[in-house]
């Protein structure tokens, strides 16, 4: 090689080393270590989807703090999850003590790296009967599903920024958020997807990753499903219900380092419902 060309190549290499921040590529292959040393706060963690996510996180090396309103159910779920789990009672209909609740959650394991907003409520009447939806039903759904998600995300994001935590926030929406919004529930879930996009834009500059999962009809206790029941359905073109474990698997990826390049997305796990199969 010509000496002048060689000298130029060497000079260019060392110049690049000085001016570029070189980030090594990491290949994570062991799913049992995907969330190793991470701590996750999961609202609605005693529910079917929330509990499945908590279980998946623990199996992947994380510690979890689950929240809900029912203390006895929280205790039972925490016992099932084992030593890597703690619980904090939290009612998103009352945000007056939110600061205290967040502090309590942080104290459980000394930090929080992940927030999963899985808490949510709905009303059968408001989902099926527009003309008889009451203001009380509307306010309750919006309070928990939207306002609660908004302000606990705000508190955790403040904690992330203050402590320089490159954390993850994952919102749980619904495939109905992609459908015409004449019900309070659908409106709340559509808003969650837009909030996800907004928070991703606002928080990505701090290294905080925000995404969303929108499940279709899921075989959980909320819909009176139990082990052994048929999961056949006409709710989607696939012809079966979504399983909580499917949602948990995607959740695990999105809050791990594998999800760091996914920003502001809503992943529909719905068999097409809410995307091209609109009811």
TrEMBL record:
<dbReference type="GO" id="GO:0006633">
    <property type="term" value="P:fatty acid biosynthetic process"/>
</dbReference>
<protein>
    <submittedName>
        <fullName>SDR family NAD(P)-dependent oxidoreductase</fullName>
    </submittedName>
</protein>
<comment type="similarity">
    <text>Belongs to the short-chain dehydrogenases/reductases (SDR) family.</text>
</comment>
<dbReference type="GO" id="GO:0016616">
    <property type="term" value="F:oxidoreductase activity, acting on the CH-OH group of donors, NAD or NADP as acceptor"/>
</dbReference>
<dbReference type="InterPro" id="IPR036291">
    <property type="entry name" value="NAD(P)-bd_dom_sf"/>
</dbReference>
<dbReference type="GO" id="GO:0008206">
    <property type="term" value="P:bile acid metabolic process"/>
</dbReference>
<dbReference type="GO" id="GO:0048038">
    <property type="term" value="F:quinone binding"/>
</dbReference>
<dbReference type="Pfam" id="PF00106">
    <property type="entry name" value="adh_short"/>
</dbReference>
<keyword id="KW-0560">Oxidoreductase</keyword>
<dbReference type="InterPro" id="IPR002347">
    <property type="entry name" value="SDR_fam"/>
</dbReference>
């Amino acid at each position: 090689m010509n000496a002048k060309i060689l000298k130029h190549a060497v000079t260019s290499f060392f110049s690049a080393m000085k001016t570029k921040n070189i980030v090594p590529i990491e290949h994570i292959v062991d799913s049992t270590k995907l969330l190793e040393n991470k701590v996750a706060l999961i609202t609605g963690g005693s529910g079917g989807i929330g509990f499945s996510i908590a279980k998946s996180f623990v199996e992947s090396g994380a510690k979890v703090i689950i929240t809900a309103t029912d203390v006895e159910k929280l205790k039972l779920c925490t016992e099932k999850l084992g030593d890597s789990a703690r619980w904090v009672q939290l009612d998103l209909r009352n945000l007056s003590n939110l600061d205290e609740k967040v502090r309590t959650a942080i104290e459980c394991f000394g930090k929080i790296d992940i927030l999963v907003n899985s808490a949510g409520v709905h009303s059968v009447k408001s989902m099926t009967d527009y003309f008889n939806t009451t203001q009380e039903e509307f306010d309750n759904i919006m309070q928990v599903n939207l306002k609660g998600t908004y302000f606990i995300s705000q508190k955790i994001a403040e904690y992330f920024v203050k402590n320089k935590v490159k954390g993850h926030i994952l919102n749980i929406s619904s495939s109905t958020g992609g459908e015409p919004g004449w019900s309070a529930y659908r409106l709340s879930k559509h808003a969650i997807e837009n909030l996800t996009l907004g928070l991703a834009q606002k928080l990505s500059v701090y290294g905080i990753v925000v995404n969303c999962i929108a499940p279709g009809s899921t075989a959980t206790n909320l819909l009176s499903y139990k082990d052994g029941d048929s999961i056949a359905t006409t709710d989607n073109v696939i012809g079966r219900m979504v399983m909580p474990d499917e949602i948990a698997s995607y959740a695990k990826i999105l809050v791990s380092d594998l999800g760091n390049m996914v920003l502001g997305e809503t992943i529909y796990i719905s068999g097409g419902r809410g995307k091209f199969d609109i009811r």
